[in-house]
From TrEMBL:
The protein, known as: NADH:flavin oxidoreductase/NADH oxidase N-terminal domain-containing protein
Record keyword Coiled coil present: no
PANTHER family: BINDING OXIDOREDUCTASE, PUTATIVE (AFU_ORTHOLOGUE AFUA_2G08260)-RELATED
Entry's family note: Belongs to the NADH:flavin oxidoreductase/NADH oxidase family.
GO molecular function, one term: FMN binding
Amino acid sequence: MTETQVDHVFTPIRLPCGKEAHNRLLKASMYEHAANFQGGPPNAAHMGMYKNWGQGQWGLILTGNVQVDRSHLTIGRDMVIPDLLNESTLRPFRDLAEAIHGGPDGAVDPPNRALAVMQVSHSGRQSANWVSGRFPWNPPLAPSSVRVGARESGFFPQLFYRLLFSTPKEMSTSEIDHVVDRFVLGAKVAHQAGFEGVELHAGHGYLLSQFISEKSNRRTDEYGEKLHLLRRIATETRRNTPKDFILGVKLNSADFVDRKASSSSDEKVLQHVRDIVSWELFDFLEITGGDYENPEFMTSVSKRQAFFSQFSRKVHECLPGGPNTPLIALTGGFRTYATINTALSSGHAELIGVGRLSIHDPHAPLRLKSEGRDYVPPPAPDYTISIWDQLFDFLGWFTGVKVPVLMGAGREMCWYTVQLEKVAGFAPIDYGVSGFGAILRSIGGVKIRSTSCHTILSWSSCALFAVILSWVGLIGVWDAMGRFTSSGYLGWDQPL
Ligand SMILES: Cc1cc2nc3c(=O)[nH]c(=O)nc-3n(C[C@H](O)[C@H](O)[C@H](O)COP(=O)(O)O)c2cc1C
């Protein structure tokens, strides 16, 4: 490997606030599914994971989303910002920052230490009914009363989304003020615990993204102006943290770009980005895509990469340049030295976010540095190794009903959260875990491997699955005969 080949990936870069990342590799935010059920502080499992990543020589390490509101969790085991700021509530967050910095034993030299950035988030209407930290009959808060999946047509997708998500309550001004205070408290916790910065999660369909997106924000007050809440939170965060505190934001390209790419939608996109950049509040903008209705951040690597990098290139073209211009971080599908280096050298981004590869290989930067273009990423998993996964896929085919993409993304997400236990234990990941086994393990807490499919547990799961399959098949036939929909019995197919 020659010097020029490593130039872009391993050149240090200064952020507008003055902090410097020693290379361009950012360990992307990934929900750990490791806190107490119903949310809590970071614990030993988090320490293990972040200590492992901390030794991998990443330029920046982002935590998984830390919820600012205990009653709006994602999948139930989120880290949560405490209500009170004192020594005992700060202690676990201090330990987490220390783990990212290489641990108390000084295992990582200061020049190779990652900048520690906490991602703060509120899931808004995407806080699922059963694991949200609320009673299921309490609706989640959102900019407008528009349910996740409201635009889906068809009985099964509707049933699926209805079971998972309630129609949200439109937030009052005082509820919005409270959310602003909680984000600011999140930044204070991060700062006092020793993190170098925070990233506001305004992607993947969570609350801040809901305010930005036309499909979920139908307000007519000042918050109907799509960027108003984001600006308020960013301004208040800056006001309450030191000048050299990193402030980033994760944005959803899908909120901005119309795939049909009419020039008017492009112009809207660029105007939004220009506005955000002109505030001079952010150190970096991380570009991603998708939400729970369209989870592209987890699927279709090649299409997604092309889409995001096209967006990122457009963003770059409208940046003014200069010391206060935020850096662009591009996340999604990066696995090889060549793609990372190309994205950097073609000017699509200044930082590259790496998610799933960092689970396969927590020390990827070390290996990319020593192996360069010869780096061979670990193989991607095959989720369909168990009989349940094949049945799962068969379900979609048999009923002739489009199983929502979210289920596929959910299976992949569960698989990776199960593997995070391996990252915490500094152990190699386990390719023997099936997608369906990962769902049981991750949601039900049941440990199951494809090789154990002859156990009683496996067969009872199979039987249960067969019952569900027959039930779903029966309803599918009924649905196809038009009994429900034509009579309007369920009334879920009506447009908003
Ligand atoms: C298990 C898992 C959990 C994730 N949790 C988060 C999260 O908490 N916040 C976030 O912004 N993105 C989250 N993501 C998305 C990743 O940050 C990243 O955008 C996505 O995985 C695409 O990057 P990749 O192709 O490098 O994996 C998660 C992804 C995975 C696989």
